[in-house]
Amino acid sequence: MTYEANKIRLIMELRRQGITDKRVLGAVERVPRELFVPEALRSEAYDNMPLPICQGQTISQPFIVAYMTQALRLGPRDRVLEIGTGSGYQAAVLSKLCRRVCTIERYRSLLIQAEACFTALKLHNITTRLGDGNRGWPELAPFARIIVTAAAPQMPVTLADQLDEGGIMVVPVGPPGDQTLIRLTRDSDGFHEEALLAVRFVPLVAGMPLDRK
User: Fold this and answer.
1) Closest CA to 179 of 150, 206, 158
2) What is the average pLDDT value for the chain, to the nearest integer?
3) What is the tally of structural domains in the chain?
4) Which of 16, 78, 132, 158 is the most buried (most CB within 10 A)?
């Protein structure tokens, strides 16, 4: 079965699972997920499941990528902060739907691989940074949208403070085994939380790895 046939099957499965935003489905369809997974796993690129990448991380299940993207309610003029570049797949999907994606990764090796994919796909509206995602990107704040692709033990206030008024952050919160995907909205009255889905993510780790690899 070709990648294209597998991709069509995946899109149909995402629709059955409740992904109704046609722009999100179109973005998933246009991003070649096989480029973001290890070569040995490319035959599984369009299976609806997470896959391992280097540094003990994973590329998220396509349903979760689509669900979180849909939950952001992206507009074409939005500037998005992503915490946890990982393979770069989520950033690539976001880049099809907004003006700019600013993405932070703590592992240099992952960031280099993701940047190579962005270059190959000519995704020129993605800006990358090697750093501690817990700190966000205050020099570029505020952001219309923030997406966090690792689980914070509690609501990350530093990131919430970098949301613009009217902004939305989608973030998994909680300890391993008891995580909930939260949509946080900021308006003139403050912050409002909405629990969306039980999820399972790698933890959001503070600081930088000692070897910086």
Assistant:
1) 150
2) 95
3) 1
4) 78
